[in-house]
Specification:
The complex is a heterodimer of chains A (289) and B (265). Chain A has 11 helices and 10 strands. Chain A is α/β, with parallel strands linked by helices. Chain A folds into 2 domains: 245 residues, Rossmann fold, CATH 3.40.50.300; 42 residues, no CATH class. Chain A has a 6-stranded mixed beta sheet with strand order 6-7-8-3-9-10, sandwiched between helices. In chain A, strands 2-1-4-5 form a 4-stranded antiparallel beta sheet, with helices on one face. Chain B has 265 residues and is mainly alpha-helical. In chain B, 69% of the residues lie in helices and 3% in strands. A two-stranded antiparallel ribbon of chain B has the order 1-2. Chain A: Belongs to the ABC transporter superfamily. Energy-coupling factor EcfA family. Chain A: It holds the Pfam family ABC_tran. Chain A: One of its GO terms (molecular function) is cobalt ion transmembrane transporter activity.
């Protein structure tokens, strides 16, 4: 499902003394099946953009096309349910949305709201809990008895259970331990590839953006200031600093090595694996010469 | 939707009203509440109305914003107006349609009560809109201080009040966040039959309670860690200072009371 933002502007608390413009003329094109990262420092408008992606917020100016639904300021809420089923959002700290008696019921909540029969919702829940590495006995427990990491997984399962076509992630791994982080990010990537899920990742982590995304958009002061492939985005360090962002760790490392060796690698390496490969090849070449 | 609510919110500003001592404002509002009940005729209610508008002007809060924020109360005012209009049966009949009879006295009472309600709500809102919650509690604590002699836990009461005021916006934001998260999961609180809406409230309330309790616990721990042990021997960073203008504003109330007593029937 394609999502296109056209000149989207948004102001919180419009017409009150608390009015605050959060977005200015944002244009962004998220083609079906792509993995789009949105990065930016705190307060840059990332989360506001994200809430537009399934019409929780309607732009005060401009429009958003989500699949074949056009969302504008004066749009009635009626047509938006369809959108919400197709676009699943994993909010920051999604464990705060758990409420039901058992984990199973909580995961089934989303799909059942959209009219999925109970049996089907249940089988989805069981399948997803396995996928997310939740032990079987957890399903009958209260979500409030779980550990933080498990609660996070349950909440994510609750969103995935709706079978969305687009998955929007807002800092999905904030506050998790490094291993849980990697597991969950890898899972999202696998779903993205296997099911062809269009994925939008809002993150502070340059490393995650570099590793997983096809395209990256940089938000700064409510504007989308830069958009391109990870290679293009991480080419220019000064420009990133202007937006109070940094290079991913491995690109930083690459730059340092290049400086010390007085040589340049052919490409910017976005993951540690790729960097190791390139460096090994470089060293082999050196030895042969 | 929730961002339009103005109860308990503070709008930073530098008007005459903003600069008043919080104690003066608090006494002012309490006395005003009493004085409002003196009014009982067209002239006296007119005076109250004008007085209230002067105060609004002096606070430099936009009228549109004030009225917009008080919408829920306006509905209540209209409701009480209608009740008086329909159920008071005194004076001559001024309007008759089928079984509905509207009496002169009913109309009069309805309008009076509405004005009374309106000025009270406006003035108390202005108090909270122009005074930081912290200075309101400081003022309350200062004013209640004499009651300590009778073992009233003044400091604790003030603290309770400041904590609850402080957490109104936080809980509002939290509600907004959870509401959005559940809406993204297809729960719909804004449409459907009453029963459906009631059911949709559960997924909102439970997480809200859970997080409120968690917050309370964290706050208690944080306070203890920073050595809080009640009001005994606690010094203050902000000092309340009584200025001439505070005396002046209270004197205007005396003038208002005298005018009202004079024109009262």
């Amino acid at each position: 499902m394609d999502i296109t933002l056209q000149q989207v502007s948004y102001a919180y608390a419009k017409n009150t003394p608390f009015e605050k413009r959060a977005l200015f003329d944002v244009n962004l094109d998220i083609p079906s099946g792509s993995y789009q990262a949105i990065i930016g420092h705190t307060g840059s408008g990332k989360s506001t953009v994200l809430q537009h992606l399934n019409a929780l917020l309607k732009p005060t100016e401009g429009s958003i096309k989500i699949g074949d639904v056009l969302v504008k300021a004066d749009q009635k809420n009626k047509h938006l349910r369809k959108v919400r089923q197709k676009v699943g959002i994993v909010f920051q700290f999604p464990e705060h949305q758990l409420f039901d008696e058992t984990v199973l019921k909580d995961i089934m909540f989303g799909p059942m709201n959209f009219g999925v029969p109970a049996e089907e919702a249940k089988s989805r829940a069981i399948e997803l809990s396995r996928l997310l590495g939740l032990p079987e006995e957890v399903l009958e427990k209260s979500p409030f008895d779980l550990s933080g990491g498990q609660m996070r997984r349950v909440a994510i399962a609750g969103v995935l259970a709706m079978n969305p076509e687009v998955l929007v992630l807002d800092e999905p791994t904030a506050g998790l331990d490094p291993r849980g982080r990697k597991e969950i990010m890898d899972l999202f990537y696998r779903l993205h590839q296997e099911k062809g899920l269009t994925t939008v990742l809002v993150t502070h982590s340059m490393e995650d953006a570099a590793r997983y995304a096809d395209r990256i958009a940089i938000m700064h002061d409510g504007k989308c200031v830069l958009e391109g492939t990870p290679q293009e985005i991480f080419e220019n360090e000064e420009r990133l600093l202007d937006y109070r962002l940094e290079l991913p760790q491995c690109v930083k490392f690459q730059k340092k090595v290049e400086q010390m060796m007085g040589k340049k690698l052919p490409t910017i390496c976005l993951t540690e694996e790729k960097l190791a490969e390139e460096l090994a090849r470089l060293m082999k070449e050196e030895r042969e010469v | 939707m929730l961002e339009k609510m103005i109860f308990g919110r503070y709008i930073p500003g530098d008007s005459f009203i903003h600069r008043l001592d919080a104690r003066a404002k608090l006494i002012f509002v309490f006395l005003f509440i009493a004085i409002v009940f003196i009014a009982n005729s067209w002239i006296t209610y007119g005076v109250l109305f004008v007085f209230t508008f002067l105060i609004i002007r002096m606070s430099k809060i936009r009228l549109y914003f004030l009225i917009n924020g008080l919408k829920p109360v306006v509905i209540l005012i209209i409701f009480t107006f209608l009740l008086h209009l329909i159920f008071t049966k005194e004076g001559s009949i001024i309007f008759e349609w089928k079984f509905i009879k509207i009496y002169e006295e009913g109309l009069r009472q309805g309008i009076f009560i509405s004005i009374r309600f309106f000025v009270l709500v406006i003035l108390t809102s202005i108090l909270t809109l122009t005074t930081t919650p912290i200075s309101i509690t400081d003022a309350l604590e200062a004013l209640l201080n004499p009651l300590k002699k009778w073992k009233l836990p003044v400091h604790e009461l003030a603290l309770m009040m400041s904590i609850s005021l402080r957490f109104i916006p936080t809980l509002m934001d939290e509600t907004d966040k959870i509401m959005k998260a559940q809406m993204a999961r297809g729960s719909d609180m804004t449409s459907g039959s009453i029963k459906e809406r009631m059911n949709a409230i559960v997924p909102l309330l439970i997480p809200l309670f859970v997080s409120a309790f968690k917050r309370a616990e964290d706050l208690a721990t944080a306070m203890e860690v920073r050595g809080y042990k009640g009001g005994e021997g606690r010094t203050r960073y902000r000092k309340l200072e009584w200025a001439t203008r505070d005396t002046v504003i209270l004197l205007t109330l005396v003038v208002l009371a005298v005018i009202l007593l004079y024109f009262r029937q």
